[in-house]
User: Fold FUSC family protein from Streptomyces brasiliensis.
Amino acid sequence: MFAVLAVALWLRPLNHAYWAAGMTTALSLLLGYFGQDAPSLLPTRLAGIALGAALSVAAAWSLLPVARGTTASAARPVPTRTP
Assistant:
């Protein structure tokens, strides 16, 4: 289990998915060590990860500003009054 965590920590700078996969593997090994049925609990964990990813993407899409090109006020000059 510690070897899996060490490899996951070593690969973490490359991609966060390696860290998540390593933690999930370590959790399944730990659950198996304590006698719990890891194969039946892992789909619940993976579903929770997928739901969290979908909610974070939805929040990011709704909160982050999106550039929509040039605006109409920036494209045409403002008329000035002549006395």
Observations:
- The chain has a mean pLDDT of 82.
- The first helix runs from residue 2 to 11.
- Helices lie at 2-11, 16-33, 38-63, 72-75.
- The CA atoms of residues 30 and 36 lie 9 Å apart.
